[in-house]
Amino acid sequence: MTKQGKKLLVIGWDAADWGIIDDLMAKGRMPHLQRLIEKGVRCNLKTLEPRLSPLLWSTIATGKGADQHGILNFVEPKPDGQGLRLVQSTTRRTKALWNMFSQSELRTHVVGWYASHPAEPIQGVIVSNALPEDSETDLDPDVIHPQDTPLDFKELVRSKPVLGSEQISTWLPRYREVAPQDDHFLKGLIQKMTHAHHIAQISEWLLTNDPWDVSMVFFDTIDTMGHEFMAFRQPKLSYVSDKHFRLFSGVMDAVYEWHDQVLGRLMAHTNENTNVVILSDHGFQHGPGRPATQQLSPDKRMEMEASWHRTFGIWVAAGPQFRQMNDQLSMSLMDVAPTLLAICGLPAGQDMPGRVIEEWLVPQTAPNRIQSWDPSAQNDGMHPPNRISNPLEQVATLKQLIDLGYLAALPDDAAQQIDLVERESRYNLAGYLSFARQYEKAASEYELLWMKNPSIARYATGWVQNLLSAKQYVRAQSAVQDLLHQHPTLVEGYLLQSNAFLSNGMRTEAEHSVEQAARLNGQNREHYANVANAWLNIGRVDKALEYTRQLLNLSVGEPKIDILVAKIYLAAGQIERAAEKALDALDMSQAIPEAHFVLGTCLAWMQQPADALLCLDMAIKLQPDHVEAQRFTKILKGEEIYDEFDSILDRCNAFIPYGSNAFKEMYHKQ
Hints:
With 670 residues, this protein is an alpha/beta fold. The strands form 3 sheets. The protein has a 9-stranded mixed beta sheet, sandwiched between helices. A hairpin with a 6-residue loop joins β3 and β4. Mean pLDDT is 88; it is low at 642-670.
């Protein structure tokens, strides 16, 4: 039992999305999750960038960002340089929850978690994410800890379940009609669902046969199946054939239903003293604006796959330590580990950026934080220091030894694989640093990548974006010129050039760059949003308004788009419409500071200053460095007075309607 005398069951559903879940629950097709929600709390769980599962699930497990936990990719170079392997637990540079639970004398199960191989020697059982591909393959001894688990359990882990026709037909009723050229869809479905069944069987065995205080089970199936089959779900997309829609349109809903059935089976092994948490790391596009990646080249498709991932995952929690709450609250991925520790009566570390969501818990006071969990402790189950490694440093060492002649050059294919993984891992690190607002560090990482790989435009766009965010405007303008010299038809390049021109006071040139970008690209959500935002930044609200209809048609349930449209309406003086779109974004999540800021600005214009201040205060609570919200708050309180309208617009960035003197009339101190 935990220090609170309770058990904790945590179930990860990679990429589970409220949009699909709510639709299925309304039809009675996910009853177990529905009952859990009715007993506890549900909310949106805001993801991080980049939206890549190994990075995100490692953040969930550690409470720290990718720059601290060190997991940067799905794979990593082997230490000998002879190819690649799954990213390892020996690469993680900080303790995971199971290490913290273990040193706190809580017996813990971990099944299938990203970057959990080789299994760590915790108090409990770990079955890593390196399960054998088939039943004929010998079981890697590092898959299971401890090694002395019962033989029948080892055999269960080694042997893949075999799915019969009846099971396959639950996801694909007309699977016998799949044509030979589409056989890869059927094989992919069987392979992925076999793996999911395997995880479920292992987890059930442990819950039934091995004592436990905490159990953490991870299913990647919604995400992996989504990348194969979400394109075929209703509503039908224009590029999907009638045949494929008829065959595959019901697959994803059936996959969600299967997860609900497994949830019921796992919960059958719990009791009234068990806290249950279901969560996902991000959502998944499922509406009319789904990205069209099917026809892309493999390299381009790899770049685009993360665009399927939506900003908000799910969080459901119920049990004796959770209040029953009807309000849709919000939390960030960073808040998960501190909150799970608090459920077990354990403190978060001061080096964990997230907070404990105390308002959900009984009692509502979390233990005082300790400095860090990372110092070595007895029974923490961490690998010994000589097993911990940094793959990027290993690559650099290997290259140096080859250059010195101490090692033979790698075969081209191995060398190319390692180079690609090294580049993409650094790219992912730069993406996280940018998300964490460490703009100068991110710019340095992107610059190194671009200088070595000038043919890859996204490295340069990341460099320019972070130079602009770091207010290095002259460097940004020079860098974007280099980018467009290499890639003269790159839409994003012209949009960045517009930002650089505008930052350097060159408005006419900025307009020309946006016009060039608008002419170059096709009709998709990202294009409309980027161009509309560029026109808004320049102050051409008339141009931005032209894109709102297309954005709304293609982006149902996308808070980022709702906020952009709200800003455009606000800048056009359509205050009530702007407030409606800001509220639409907040209906998706209360954890979006920009939505609170825009709504607060709308309410100020609607002569509701008290409510406006509440919204601005919430924006500042969620993002303490939200300068615009801080300044606008001072203006509303009469603590800062501006004599010129342009000064208000420039400093507050509050999207005040152009050409209006209303703000001065309302708040100018006579």
